[in-house]
Design brief:
The chain has five domains: 1-138 and 520-588, no CATH class; 140-260; 262-386, no CATH class; 422-518; 591-713, no CATH class. 67% of the residues lie in helices and 9% in strands. It contains 24 helices and ten strands. The protein has helices at 4-27, 35-59, 64-89, 96-113, 116-134, 145-165, 172-199, 207-231, 234-259, 262-288, 297-324, 331-346, 353-369, 376-392, 399-417, 423-440, 444-461, 469-491, 500-513, 520-544, 556-559, 561-588, 649-655, 687-693, and strands at residues 590-599, 602-603, 607-614, 627-634, 640-646, 661-669, 672-674, 679-681, 696-701, 707-713. Strands 1, 2, 3, 8, 9 and 10 form a six-stranded antiparallel β-sheet that branches. Strands 5-4-6-7 form a four-stranded antiparallel β-sheet, covered by helices on one side. A hairpin with a 5-residue loop joins strand 9 and strand 10 (707-713). It is globular and about 85 Å long. The termini are far apart.
Length: 720
């Protein structure tokens, strides 16, 4: 049907703009509303998402997918509500509890609706919750190497459970994300212990590091073997293979830098040559025995892994050896010698693909890493050789690297020839070059990478000419181009790379959040209007769409009402409990005054805030990592100071002797205690003024020790 894909795209773009408008509006922390109005408004918006989802699904029964998207918007709105409560009450914002509270109904929705987005959202929230629990966003915990290792191994095991739990059913994206996260954590662990063994002279030998190496090898090896032989998930196999390769290369580079001798680099060179020979033999073996298309994957994987390992080993070893024998000091000679390898490799027979790509990539990597040292003559030589090879390999996997090298050389050459040229003009010229390549080269793979280059360069251009008409021209034209291409890629059959336009659209909306020139409030209003326009466009196109009996892939909004409505009530109950707890502290809590030391960051969802550290935040001990109860006492100036730290609230109450002493609940992180009141959220653009005047904080403390930050000021209240 002619308009079906365009209609769904319009709905999706409208939803993205609408969600962005809501997040931006509440992050702006507009001073024109009090806390009750803010809370009521966002809760109503959350319920509207669910209600509109049901009403839309009932009205447009042939657009059930769109109804499911709007329903998902309700779950996002719930997360915004929880974040807003942290903003409004200035209590426990950006802590793991925010993501944990969001996670619980997300899991319930995933289980009862079976909607893939909820599974992916729950997986992401789970990992964020675990991460922020062990590594709080607003404080640093100085843990021992053993503690750090055990935590990361625990996270790896959690992701292994997710990897295998969703290997046969559920969204494959979870398998991809979990396998990538496992490899990243494995690399972090092994690099950490290798650096300890090699470069930390004060650290005694520990068998824990040996256990880490064995555990990482066993985990990665088993996942690779199991997925290669039993599960046949090509993406996971490639991710694990690259993770293992990067880990091995990182270990070699660290050991080589520790030895710092010719022998280490020579061994690396021999290993690289061995990899080329073995990889070529194995590739020839598998290619000769190929009987069907399914076997194409294994030769491709062998080629990818062996080339990756060989290039990094060969590059690092060659540079090290050349500098040790003194030849690396002549930079021009080294650069020209290396860049010549690129076209030479391109002319090696395709049957020797591992040798071919290794030679090309080694020359490209070494020559590009030292390119900025050279004159225009050397730059032109580089540009001609790389440009020729890029054109020759325009339909091959190496094309994006050649394109990147070409753009890189053009930038350096322009600055070399025209010393006064502006960066803005350079980017415009590069965009013109990328557009020329896009329209000239017709191969879908090549066009896809040229489009990625256009989108990236144009995004860079949106940073230029602030406070001018050009700034708005660059941004609005870029946004128009993204929307146009999003429609185009869903309406016509394109290469998968061209779907990058959708990712860039989402990324651009996220980037505008941190663009300080245009306020969050103005962006919110603009995006709300744009989102409404796209919804009206979608409704108009929907009228032109032929009706059929298909109700889409996801019909849970209508068919599972009795399952998801109770979960919405659970969300409301959670919000009511949080609000009741905070309001009880505000009404019945004890006022205390603390000294503060501010800094000025921005929260992901909640907007601008001043981060505070108090006069009761630092302690002498470095060994405490648990919940504590701090007894504070008012001094002669009216400022509360720490009197004692206790493990239970009962112990603290026993030591309390008069009404001028208050118990505050905190979390000890080594020599720092956090109380959940370290963030004071403010209206956008007022950070400097608040930061300059923030010397004292007015705190409300409940009977259980929970605290809420009320205000900050430059002077002590007279009645204190």
């Amino acid at each position: 049907m002619k308009y079906e894909k365009m209609t769904k795209t319009s709905y999706l773009i409208g939803l993205l703009f609408g969600l962005s408008a809501i997040i931006y509006f509440f992050a702006a922390n507009w001073g024109g509303m009090d806390r009750y109005v803010k809370i009521a408004l966002i809760v109503i918006l959350m319920l509207l998402f669910y209600g509109v989802s049901y009403g839309f699904s009932k009205w447009k029964q042939h657009q059930q997918d769109v109804g499911a998207w709007i329903f998902w918007g309700g779950s996002i709105a719930f997360g915004v509500v929880v974040a807003l409560l942290g903003q409004v009450y200035n209590s426990h914002a950006d802590s793991y509890t925010l993501f944990l509270v969001w996670l619980i109904p997300s899991v319930l929705l995933a289980v009862f609706t079976q909607y893939p987005i909820f599974f992916v959202q729950s997986y992401i929230l789970l990992n964020i919750t675990v991460y922020t629990y062990f590594f709080p966003l607003n404080s640093w915990i100085d843990r021992s190497n053993t503690e750090h290792t055990l935590i990361l191994l625990g996270v790896i095991m959690l992701n292994i459970a997710c990897l295998y739990g969703f290997s046969k059913r559920g969204p494959r994206l979870i398998s991809y994300l979990s396998s990538a996260w496992i490899q990243l954590l494995s690399i972090e662990l092994t690099i950490r212990w290798t650096s300890i063994y090699l470069f930390n002279e004060e650290h005694a030998f520990s068998y824990i590091g040996i256990f880490v190496y064995l555990a990482v090898a066993l985990i990665s090896g088993w996942i690779f073997y199991d997925y290669m032989n039993n599960r046949q998930n090509k993406v996971v196999i490639v991710i694990v293979s690259l993770g293992i390769s990067i880990n091995l290369i990182a270990q070699f580079i660290m050991v080589s830098s520790w030895i710092n001798g010719f022998l280490a680099y020579f061994v690396g060179l021999l290993i690289a040559i061995t990899l080329i020979i073995l990889g070529s033999k194995w590739l020839a073996k598998f290619t000769a025995s190929k009987t069907n298309d399914e076997n194409n994957f294994l030769p491709t994987l062998i080629k990818l892994v062996f080339v990756f390992l060989a290039v990094l080993l060969l590059s690092s070893s060659l540079i090290g050896m050349l500098y040790l024998i003194g030849l690396g000091e002549d930079i021009a000679w080294l650069m020209v010698s290396m860049v010549i390898l690129v076209p030479i490799g391109s002319h090696i027979g395709r049957e020797q693909s591992i040798l071919r790509y290794t030679v090309m990539l080694t020359g490209w990597l070494i020559s590009s890493s030292i390119l900025w040292y050279h004159s225009s003559v050397v730059l032109i030589i580089y540009l001609l050789l790389i440009g020729y090879t890029t054109w020759r390999e325009r339909e091959r996997i190496i094309y994006p690297l050649g394109l990147g090298g070409t753009i890189y050389a053009v930038v350096l050459l322009l600055y070399e020839l025209f010393s006064g040229i502006s960066g803005e003009l350079v980017v415009i010229l590069l965009i013109a070059l990328a557009f020329g390549l896009y329209f000239w080269l017709k191969n879908p793979y090549t066009k896809g990478w040229n489009l990625v280059a256009i989108l990236t360069l144009w995004l860079i251009l949106t940073f230029f000419s602030e406070n001018s008409v050009l700034y708005y021209l660059y941004n609005f034209s870029y946004l128009f181009f993204l929307v146009y291409f999003t429609y185009r890629v869903v309406h016509k059959r394109n290469h998968w790379l061209e779907y990058a336009a959708i990712l860039y659209l989402i990324g651009y909306l996220a980037y505008k959040y941190y663009d300080l020139f245009w306020t969050l409030l103005h962006k919110s209003i603009t995006f709300a209007i744009v989102g409404a326009i796209f919804f009206f466009i979608a409704i108009y196109l929907d009228k032109k769409t032929e009706r059929n009996n298909s109700t889409g892939r996801f019909e849970f909004v209508l068919r599972s009402v009795r399952k998801w409505v109770p979960i919405v009530f659970v969300q409301l109950i959670i919000l009511i409990v949080i609000i009741f707890q905070k309001e009880t502290i505000l009404r019945n809590g004890t006022d205390i005054i603390l000294k503060v030391e501010p800094v000025d960051p921005r929260s992901i969802i909640q907007g601008d805030y001043v981060q505070l550290s108090y006069n009761i935040s630092q302690i002498d001990s470095d060994e405490r990592y648990d919940r504590v109860y701090v007894l504070v006492e008012k001094n002669s100036k009216g400022i509360y100071q720490m009197k004692g730290i206790y493990d239970t609230i009962e112990e603290a109450k026993k030591e309390r002797t008069d009404d001028h002493q208050v118990i505050v609940t905190g979390k000890a992180n080594g020599n720092t205690i956090t109380y959940g009141i370290e963030n004071f959220f403010i209206e956008e653009g007022t950070g400097i003024e608040v930061e300059q005047n923030a010397k004292y904080a007015n705190i409300k403390v409940g009977s259980n020790g929970d605290a809420i930050l009320i205000s900050v000021s430059s002077n002590l209240p007279e009645d204190k």
